[in-house]
Amino acid sequence: MTVLKTSVIVLDCAEPEPLARFYAHLLGATTGPATDDGELFLVTGRAGPLLGVRRDPHRATPSWPLPEGSQEVHLRILVAPDALDEAEREAVALGARPVAAEDDGTRPDNRTTLRRYADPAGHAFVIAAVREDPAPAECLQP
């Protein structure tokens, strides 16, 4: 029998609580300290933990994308194509810093379909348009 597991990507930063609130607002989720670990805050959605943010006062702000073109681990937030501009406005209003916008050639109006940001602590994330529903039905069940 396989042991029931879940996983979560954890971002390190000097002040985890404000960064956890940033992602909770951006993702329509909630946040709070992890049980028995005051250094870790979990961002939780309807289907469970989405992201962890952990205190590391010595964490250096990441540089992304790197000049060589490689990418570090980053979040990709999926939205419907017609919600891309609104998702960008929400991210920037919450403190995200735009890094780049790219067109993959799928939009007839030549607008970008993939937008790169740095969160308030400098971690990379992308907001990308997808044609399929970004939230599978099983994740939307209460």
SSE order and pairing:
Layout: E1 9-13, H1 16-27, E2 30-34, E3 37-45, E4 48-55, E5 75-79, H2 84-94, E6 97-102, E7 114-118, E8 124-129
Describe the structure in your own words.
It is a single chain. The chain has about 140 residues and is α/β, with parallel strands linked by helices. About 15% of the residues lie in helices and about 35% in strands. It contains two helices and eight strands. It has helices at about 15-25, 85-95; strands at about 10-15, 30-35, 35-45, 50-55, 75-80, 95-100, 115-120, 125-130. It has a four-stranded mixed beta sheet with strand order 1-4-3-2, with helices on one face. A hairpin with a 2-residue loop joins strand 3 and strand 4. The longest helix has 12 residues, at about 15-25. The two termini are about 25 Å apart. The model is unreliable at about 135-140 (pLDDT under 50).
Identify the notable features of this structure and list them briefly.
alpha/beta, 2 helices, globular, 142 residues, disordered C terminus, four-stranded mixed sheet, single chain
- Structural class determined from secondary elements: alpha/beta
Radius of gyration: 16 Å
Q: Estimate percent helicity.
A: 10-25%
Could you name the ranges where pLDDT drops below 50 across 5 or more consecutive residues?
Answer: 137-142
Q: Output the number of helix runs.
A: 2
Largest sheet: 4 strands, mixed
- Average pLDDT number: 81
Task: Report the strand count.
Answer: 8
Taken in chain order, the helices and strands follow as EHEEEEHEEE
